[in-house]
Amino acid sequence: ALDSPGSGLLTNFYSQRDESDASISFDGLTAYGHVPYTSDLEFDDELTFEAWIKASDHKPGTIAAMDENGWGVFKLCSQGSHGIESGCCQAGEGRKHNSIAFFPGQSTSTDGICSSAFSTEDPILIGQWTHILVTVKSGSYVHMYIDNKLQQLSNATGPITDPAYSWPIFRTRGENATTGNGLFFGALPSCGGTCMMLNATLDKIRIWNAAVDKDTVANNYAYLPASVNPNYEHIVADFEVKGKHDGIVENLAGTAQDMYLLGAASLDYENFAMADHPVHGSALYFDGHRMFMEVRDREPGWFNSDNMTFEAWIKPNDISRGEVLAMKDMWGWSVMLMCSGTEGENCCVDGDHLQDSIAFHPFDGQGPCSEYPSSTLPVQRGVWNHVAVTTEKLSGGGLTVKFFVDGIAAGKFSSFDYTVSSTGSHEGTITFGRIPDTSSACEGGSCMQYIGHMDNVRLWSMTLGGDALAHYKDVRLGQLHPYWLALVFGYDFDIGAAGNGIAVDISQKFNAKIEFTGEEQDLFQGQTTHWHADELNMGEDFFPSLPRSMYFDGKSVYGVDFHPELAPPESMTWEAWIQPDKIGIDEHRAEVLTSLGDPHMGWGVMLMCGKGATSPGCCENGDHIKDSVAFFAGENDGDCKDYPSSTGHVNRGDWNHVAITVSHIGNGKQITFYINGTKSGSY
Q1: Which of 164, 236, 329, 551 has CA 20 to 30 A from 118's CA?
Q2: Per-residue pLDDT for 248 more than 80?
Q3: CA distance 131 to 51
Q4: Above 80 in pLDDT, residue 546?
């Protein structure tokens, strides 16, 4: 997906952290991890715990345990299996060897892990990465999954057949415990790190104060970054190693504290679960045979707006043919590549469409193809083209349909017969890459299967104008888009896609599924996910979409609408990474970085000229250091010599981190400057 190269705005970026991946290694002897207690860990209504585990032996161990005799997740063993006796459950207690168990917490002094836990039917495999997930709603259910497979659960007497026996009341600590020890990994908290020690590596540990539903599990969210999970607002902790932080694993989300590694616990940079990939440029490839993509409506009407815009980047293969790019249900509204006559496959025999034009199906039912409106400009096969179709409701009924190819208007058609709603189109599913018929009748190309790449697919619930389409077709989609609130879905295929069967919707409303007819496609190779070369091409067939910064040309100004929180009365912190352009050794330049109002009534941050400089905007009567950072506010009364400024300077041409803190002290304010993490003056 894209930011268009050379667009002039998004041309450079600063990579703020070392994105090294690693797992957390526990040696089964002294290693454990600890998250100090905070009230954020104190919840007992709903819980989801998930992690990737690679066990090193058959012994039992603590995966996670909350406080003293609170809820926990464990790896169990059965006594006598593999010659192991110590710490295993009794042979008659119904536990499978190497099963995963959820202990809801101690309600009486006799409750123990072997006697009171729920455990899985399937074991985990030794020496192999396995995903485990436990989701609990207190008093209602506990569900456990191994590699996304829902498990038959057992208790101390054997398999649970009556759902009434899987209604746990989980606790953050035992019934009589009063301590607040926090959350432990790799060891039981009550043993001080000396029993139930785990010999395994863990990765991508996530804890939610919500019970993740079955649809979320089925949609393979375990293989995606936590930020795209629909329950993201409920996340408490996301312990995934990003960057090199010896002795600590940063909590990347939620409000719980970081995990401290104790004993022999360490980070293993050679061994980690490749479950979700970083954002990188990708496009989806349709093979014209078995592959297609589906997105399902959550509520009726989302996909049926009379005022609508569909846009995408496409790179069709070299053979002209009739091909569906997107179709709502069975012959609802559709966008397709057209041809006429009898020479090409699936061409409109009676039509007068331009070869390789874009057509829109606007009828209730299939209708005659000769009457489909189509573009007056063709796409070029074998290269990237941006295509867009807009619909706009007419006052007396019907629609106006407009086409755009590479940002250029390519035809306008109006008819009272055009519609985006059809009596046979109720399911609310949009299929990409073919007619939505998975029967054997569609083998070959008879269902207008698309062959080629597709990228940056967007559906809007409004009619976008030609100027907006032309300007934003090359820009990575985000909340700065002026029509962001009208976005129904947007797929850039930079996260997920064929690597795990999901295309992530940028708006996080409608994640789509990559589907295959016939036998299920093997998207996972071994125990790590890989981008499947046939479906997801990462070479030259995408527009780059890496992290970006914004470049200011000295003329353009970018604004944010005013909000009272932008003018805090007591204290504030402003920070940014900046890379100011180089200037001559004898040159001076005053540059505003951020400004709310002006020096007489607002506040702002700027780079200053040196003492005595006379260049435009410089403070001639000031004593500022050249390229220092200054802060102005209303009480300066606009006199630049009184602006507090840093005692150090930024380095032009390099990335610099600059920060300013404003704190309330007595009847005044204290302003402190920092450059690259080092204090640089306080006033």
Answers
A1: 236
A2: yes
A3: 6
A4: no
DSSP per-residue codes, 9-38: SS------S---EEEEEEESSS-EEEE---
Annotate 546-599 with three-state secondary structure: CCCCCCCCCCCCCCCCCCHHHCCCCCEEEEEEECCCCCCCCCCCCEEEEEECCC
pLDDT in tens, 406-423: 999 999 999 999 988 765
Query: Are the CB atoms for 196 and 31 separated by under 8 Å?
Result: no
How far, in Å, are 262, 276, 629 from residue 575 at the CA level? 33, 30, 11
The closest of 525, 54, 18 to 268, measured between CA atoms, is 54
Report the C-alpha gap between 541 and 315 in whole angstroms.
Answer: 8
Per-residue DSSP letter, 362: -
Contacts of 526 (CB under 8 A, 6+ apart): none
What are the distances in angstroms from CA 394 to CA 414, 415, 432?
8, 9, 28
In three-state form (DSSP H/G/I as H, E/B as E, the rest C), the secondary structure along 362-424 is: CCCCCCCHHHCCEEEEECCCCCCEEEEEEEEECCCCCEEEEEEECCEEEEEEEECCCCCCCCC
From CA 360, how far away is CA 420, in angstroms rounded? 10
Q: Is 89 exposed, middle or buried (0-12, 13-18, 19+ CB in 10 A)?
A: buried
Q: Give the C-alpha separation, 565 to 420, whole Å.
A: 43
Residue 228: other Cβ atoms inside 10 A:
18
Which residues lie closer than 8 Å to 645 by C-beta, 6 or more apart? Answer: 608, 624, 625, 628, 629, 630, 631, 673, 681
From the number of C-beta atoms within 10 Å of its C-beta (0-12, 13-18, 19+), residue 333 rates as buried
In contact, 400 and 355? CB cutoff 8 Å: no
Rounded CA separation 592/597 (Å): 12
Is 579 exposed, middle or buried (CB count within 10 Å of its CB: 0-12, 13-18, 19+)?
Answer: middle
What confidence tier does 638 reach under pLDDT thresholds 50, 70, 90?
A: low
CB contact set of 293 (below 8 Å; sequence gap of 6+):
284, 431, 432, 433, 503, 512, 513, 514, 515
Task: Spell 522-533 as b/e; 16+ CB within 10 A means b.
Answer: ebbeebebebbe
The more confidently predicted of residues 500 and 563 is 563
User: What value does the mean pLDDT of the chain take?
Assistant: 81
Question: Is 54:201 a contact under the CB 8 Å cutoff?
Answer: yes
d(CA 493, CA 382): 20
Q: Could you tell me how far CA 647 lies from the centroid of its own chain? A: 40
What span, in angstroms and rounded, lies between the C-alpha atoms of 638 and 601? 8
Strand partners, 266: 25
Residue labelled with tokens 């990347």? 252
Sign of CA dihedral 260, 264, 269, 273: negative
Cα–Cα distance for residue pair 595/559, rounded to 1 Å: 10
d(CA 83, CA 498): 43
What distance in Å separates the CA atoms of residue 390 and residue 388, rounded to the nearest whole number? Answer: 7
* Cα–Cα nearest to 181, from 167, 166, 191: 191
- Quick: pLDDT tens for 272-298: 776 554 455 677 888 887 778 888 776
The single-letter DSSP state of residue 89 is B
| Stretch 112-132: mean pLDDT | 92
CA distances from 298 to 143, 219, 427, 429 (A): 24, 14, 10, 9
Identity at 7, one-letter amino acid code: S
Distance, CA of 392 to CA of 480 (rounded, Å):
24
- Assess contact for 419 and 398: CB atoms under 8 A: yes
Residues ≥6 apart with Cβ < 8 Å to 527:
128, 129, 130, 273
Q: Determine the Cα–Cα distance for residues 238 and 275; give it in Å rounded to an integer.
A: 14
Q: How far is CA 368 from the centre of its chain?
A: 42
Q: Which amino acid is at 306?
A: D
- Cα dihedral value 224, 497, 464, 376, nearest 10: 180
As a whole number of angstroms, the distance between CA 350 and CA 422 comes to 24
